[in-house]
Automatic annotation (TrEMBL):
Signal peptide: none annotated. It is found in: Endoplasmic reticulum membrane. GO terms for cellular component: endoplasmic reticulum membrane. This is Protein ROT1. The lineage of its organism: Eukaryota, Fungi, Dikarya, Basidiomycota, Agaricomycotina.
């Protein structure tokens, strides 16, 4: 998924539109980025609904081994998807507390948190994170 917080747009590549997905990236110097694409099935409707989320910001390690992800509030975006209606995009500023995390063989990342944290394991795709710049990008002040 490609997000652009400057002009408040999302572009979900066609090959990913049929399944929910999540991507988290972390740098060694305390920055993170999150993309979420979640579909919601409705058995009584032919309209696929879901949401897309983009956030990035800084993270810190807690004394209990947790991670606290604090977004740059100006850049967080959430889009509610409704094929039979409009697709509004709004600001989102959701600090996330990752209670536990671990890296397993693969390498595979497992996060356990709240809100939009994925419930499945995530496989590393790139050795170097492929992220937007690690600073506030939009002009919201």
């Amino acid at each position: 998924m490609i997000a652009n917080p400057v002009n408040s747009t999302f572009n979900v590549p066609e090959q990913y539109k049929s399944a929910s997905s999540a991507s988290y990236s972390f740098t060694d110097d305390g920055f993170w980025e999150q993309y979420i694409y979640r579909l919601v099935a409705h058995g009584t409707s032919s309209c696929t609904q879901g949401l897309t989320i983009y956030q990035h910001g800084t993270y810190t390690h807690g004394p209990d081994g947790s991670l606290l992800l604090v977004p740059f509030w100006q850049d967080g975006r959430i889009q509610i998807l409704d094929q039979c209606g409009s697709d509004p995009i709004s600001l989102i500023n959701q600090t996330e507390h990752i209670r536990s995390w671990r890296i397993m063989d693969g390498p595979v990342l497992r996060l356990e948190g709240e809100y939009y944290t994925p419930v499945g394991n995530m496989t590393r795709v790139y050795d170097t994170p492929q992220m937007l710049p690690t600073k506030v990008l939009s002009s919201w002040r």
